[in-house]
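Hi support team,

I've been running sequence recovery on a batch of backbones for a student project. Most finish fine, but this one hangs at about 90% for roughly twenty minutes before it completes. I'm not sure whether the input is malformed or the queue is just slow. I've pasted the structure tokens below so you can try to reproduce it. Let me know if you need the job ID as well.

Thanks,
M.K.
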């Protein structure tokens, strides 16, 4: 029986050029950190790339949170300790005060049509609504992107971040940890996402996915636009519950 609906954020609730956002995020953070550490911003591009790749790896065996592994990898690559309180405060300030201004230009961030309605439809149906965004960023950075999507942290029972996750999508371990924190089984969750590779996981784990996008991925239990999902949610859930019964 479905008890929770988990939304992906980027290109599910929020339309944006994610590659452009990431480039802008790294450029801004690198120039800030370079000033503090008296190095050149260009010298920090590779450490950033390495750290994102490390947490995203599907071959991980460690039990570190994504934040810890990111910080360790970054430190090994350039000697800057992101977990030092002063550096942490600097990055937090950057994500709180500067990053929310990155929505314009080539990033072109705006809400996906029907996103707000879909989130409200989940709560109206008596289900729990959670944000299962790929956990590569802090909550502060997730909040900046949520704002661009016209949603906020208060709309969700749980938001995945680099601090509360030890894997990235499409690792089943990531989804399992997220469901555990919600107090649900994966069979009780419906994932909604745009990415056939990251948001649709092996059916053996029990998690089912509604796909919002233009593709025809195998393994999705539903596909269509977010506007349609918002309208059809009660029927989608009823159909899955009937199949389970
Ligand atoms: Mg996405």
């Amino acid at each position: 029986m479905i008890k929770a609906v988990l939304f992906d954020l980027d290109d599910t609730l929020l339309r944006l050029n994610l590659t452009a956002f990431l480039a802008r995020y790294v450029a801004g953070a690198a120039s800030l950190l370079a000033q503090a550490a008296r190095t050149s911003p260009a010298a920090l591009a590779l450490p950033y790339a390495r750290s994102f790749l490390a947490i995203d790896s599907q071959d991980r065996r460690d039990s570190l949170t994504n934040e810890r592994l990111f910080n360790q990898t970054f430190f090994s690559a350039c000697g800057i300790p992101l977990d030092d309180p002063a550096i942490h405060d600097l990055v937090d300030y950057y994500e709180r005060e500067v990053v929310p201004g990155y929505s314009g230009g080539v990033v072109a961030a705006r809400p996906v049509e029907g996103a707000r309605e879909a989130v409200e439809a989940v709560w109206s149906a008596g289900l729990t609504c959670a944000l299962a965004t790929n956990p590569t960023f802090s909550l502060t950075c997730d909040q900046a992107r949520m704002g661009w999507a016209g949603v906020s942290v208060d709309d969700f029972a749980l938001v995945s971040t680099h601090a509360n996750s030890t894997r990235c999508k499409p690792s089943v371990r990531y989804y399992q940890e997220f469901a555990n924190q919600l107090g649900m089984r994966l069979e009780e969750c419906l994932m909604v996402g745009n990415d056939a590779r990251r948001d649709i996981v092996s059916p053996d784990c029990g998690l089912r996915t509604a796909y919002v996008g233009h593709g025809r991925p195998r393994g999705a239990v539903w596909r269509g636009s977010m506007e349609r999902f918002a309208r059809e949610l009660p029927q989608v859930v009823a159909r899955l519950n009937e199949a389970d019964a």
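--
Follow-up from support: It reproduced on our side and the slowdown came from queue contention, not your input. The longest strand covers residues 189-193. No action needed from you.
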